Queue: 3 jobs
Job 1
Amino acid sequence: MKAIRVHAFGEADVLTFEDVDDPRVSEGQVLVKVEAVGINPVETYVRAGAYALLPELPFIPGGDAAGTIADIGAGVTGFSLGQRVYVAAPVSSGSYAQLMAVDVASVFPLHDSVSFGQGAAVGVPYATAYRALFQKAEAKAGETVFVHGASGAVGIASVQLAKAHGMRVVGSAGTERGKALVESHGADCVLDHTQPDYMDELAAFTRGAGPEVIVEMLANVNLNRDLAAIARFGRVIVVGNRGPTEIDARQTMGKDSSIRGMALWNASEAELASVHAALVAGLANGSLNPVVGREFPLAEAAAAHVAVLEPGAYGKIVLMT
């Protein structure tokens, strides 16, 4: 099969397109014929060697994918050959390939109404958004959530999930195209975070009270603004960060507000099972609608790794095999 492999940590050009042996399923695994692969920023950090959990070299990157079941290992029940599925596996489990052998616990049914490209956009983005909103922020119907950076894959997932759970949603984006995307997916208010007064608009929308929940995609830039904006007893969930920042912690005191970090790998098996039960249902009933912003051929994984870190996020970047 064809696959992308990394033989040395480094820049995007270390992603090499090559022939490798087809994987074989072990007990408790299925073999997925991969049709689409989801690209996540975390995979660029792993590729560069700048991540807390690094695989042994050489490795095939990626954990998010969608395709069909090509083989079933011993002990596996509940799946059939040819069945459409999405994969949400650890980030270095080999999804940048035409075939992927993966533990059955990381494989989920993909509704017929959802394209393979959209299926590849589910794993990390939607699981991250769900965990941020409901397992970390403990968000409730009727509360207001501000998705600070809402036009990317996790941002759009957060907007859709919050709306489906009866929350008021404010989202920000940095381009007209991104703002239109956020609005089209149900945000009640859309802000332009390139404008100097956009946080004043957030305050006006909440009548000065602030949002109860903020899902933050770039904490090194925005965290201190979030602390000024958050409601009394509010929760800021740090989903993304690219460097150090300085905050005035006094802003948390009078409000009893909190900053909660999250990493998807810390979720327990039970928590992940709950997450994906909700996502499978949401995909089936149409309340969740993943957005594919750009598609690249598998051989152009290096270009996709550059694109995923560029400003002006718009949906999910996927590789097509």
Job 2
Amino acid sequence: MMVAQLELRAKRLDAAEQSLAASLQLQPRLRPAVLGVQKELRLWRKHGANSPASVGAWPGAKDPWFLAKLCGAGLAGVDVGEQVARALGVST
């Protein structure tokens, strides 16, 4: 499943499709998640994965990884804050 997501982000749509099929064979209970990624795949194909204009057309709000990306950005901010505090000699 993760390989399919990575392939999709790298715009290797055929490889993403193959990874999704393999995911279903290995773990049939992943069907709902696979269907969600297949929906993304269809959007990429519809908007033209290799088109620079497709990046602006990508539905970011419907990105299943949006919350994870947001949390990652928040944690990166905390890391920066800790590094600044250490540099200033403040106890954390």
Job 3
Amino acid sequence: MFPFAEYILVTWKPPEEPNGIITGYQAGSAKYTGSQFKDVNVALKEVGAEKRRYLLSEQEELSDYVVEIRAKTAPGWGQSVRKTTSTVKKSRKS
């Protein structure tokens, strides 16, 4: 995961033990405050089975985010993985 000022670039590897052939991924982020990131609802967007990176745009600088991703196989969506990150200050040109 690579946080910038207004976006977060998420990269991933396929699950080590998938429950079948990966047919898709979902990824998303949500801003949070405090320490309760586990309770934050993240809106996930389908990003395709062939992708291994996704750009989460329209983030706010100097903010905390929870990023979530999950994989899909024929039986359905697997357990998601959540990580927290913080965006940085936007550089200003003088």
